[in-house]
Amino acid sequence: MDKFVIKGGNPLIGKVTISGSKNSALPILAATLLTPEECIIHRVPDLSDIRYMLEILKFLGAQVHYEKGTVRVKNKIINWIAPYDLVRKMRASICILGPLIARCGKARVSLPGGCVIGDRPIDLHISGLQKLGANIDIIKGDVVAQGGQLRGTTINLRGPYGSTVLGTDNVMMAACRSEGTTIIEGAACEPEVEDLAKFLVSMGAKISGIGSQRLIIEGIKELHGSEYTIITDRIEAGTFAVGAAMTKGDLFLEQAPVNHMTSVLEKLRDCGVTIQVEEKGLRVSRSGPLKAFEIETSSYPGFPTDMQAQFCAMATIACGKSKVVENIFPNRFMHISELKRLGANIELLKNEVHIYGIERLSGAPVMASDLRASAALVLAGLVADNTTEVHRVYHIDRGYEKIDEKLLAVGAMIKRVYSKT
Ligand code: EPZ
């Protein structure tokens, strides 16, 4: 398993080009199952999660060509079963369920199981699809769905922790080819859900209320192929912005989706970070002290849970006591014990942490556990004394395109050490 060896102390200075959004690309690639015609998707980031999704589409019968960020895919479905050994590699593959049922009238997709950030139930996905008329059972760890003709209805997708992103995606995709009108109340409004809705409309779907918590979908019989460019990644951009803030750097984030980053940019400004919105991106720099802060994660447009770990890393060197409350995945704190190995002073309570900023972290070997926790550890290594080794960086390769190369190019002392094991 590869590791990163990072020598702390250099400010990040220069230009980073932000890649296409992983969390937009995955459901959009799944949505191509809704048509037998060719779809061409641009700005698809080269990530292991994307490669897994393309493997699944190929397993189902698709012809797939992926080159220089563009995916050409033609779904002649010959199989409606997605097996455990493919699905277990990437839980987001559950978003093939809705389009498969809508296209084939049936589907068998392995239950994604949990992950280190917490239990990942899909009860809202299942109940939403059942309300559209799909008969769904759980058999030997698989979701087994018999669809027949789906029929539109009103569905509420709010759960105990707010709306569900991939649940909204699944139900919206199935509703596009249901008979009649579907109203989704409590729909997730994340930019990635909006991007999927716009892609579906480009395929001929009839969706109104895009970007709101109330989606109205007029089902149609067929969807056609489409050529589409994915939005850029607000979480990658936010991660580099935190890197500039922590290292007292000065980064230009080219193509950063500024309009999708309001809550994160507001919080950075509150911490004393300079944010300048420019024509083709965003300039982030810091010269003065890094102030402590308080954040509470919530559904969009609130503060994103996917930026929580990165802000915890920043809090470890801020002046004063910061407070981070995690309301979406209450156990999403695997990064805390590793940050403490670097000398951070953190108190973990139920679903919140109190972080008392210190002068400097000190380098040590740490273990990545999930995608955003790994990013937090890399950020901490950039400012820690001496050397930090981040092990199991396959976690970070799932969601950040060439992050070591991008960091190297702006002055970070980071090296990927390949290993055969
Ligand atoms: C998406 O996951 C993202 N993944 C996650 O990003 C992100 O953290 C999450 O949304 C929240 O914004 C992708 O888009 C591929 P949810 P998703 O369903 O859709 C509960 C990353 O780092 N819930 O919105 O799986 C659930 O337990 C990843 O890029 C139910 O109770 O998340 C959670 O507490 C990590 N029942 C909350 O809702 C359900 O049926 C939000 O989950 C579904 C979810």
TrEMBL record:
The keyword Cell cycle applies. Pfam families: EPSP_synthase. Keywords: Cell cycle, Cell division, Cell shape, Cell wall biogenesis/degradation, Cytoplasm, Peptidoglycan synthesis, Pyruvate, Transferase. Phosphoenolpyruvate binds at residues 22-23. Its EC number is 2.5.1.7. The keyword Cell division applies. The active site is at residue 115. SUPFAM superfamilies: EPT/RTPC-like (SSF55205). It catalyses: phosphoenolpyruvate + UDP-N-acetyl-alpha-D-glucosamine = UDP-N-acetyl-3-O-(1-carboxyvinyl)-alpha-D-glucosamine + phosphate. CDD domains: UdpNAET. The modification 2-(S-cysteinyl)pyruvic acid O-phosphothioketal is found at residue 115. Pathway: Cell wall biogenesis; peptidoglycan biosynthesis. One of its GO terms (cellular component) is cytoplasm. Belongs to the EPSP synthase family. MurA subfamily. PANTHER family: UDP-N-ACETYLGLUCOSAMINE 1-CARBOXYVINYLTRANSFERASE. Cell wall formation. Adds enolpyruvyl to UDP-N-acetylglucosamine. This is UDP-N-acetylglucosamine 1-carboxyvinyltransferase. It comes from Methylacidiphilum fumariolicum (strain SolV). The gene is murA.
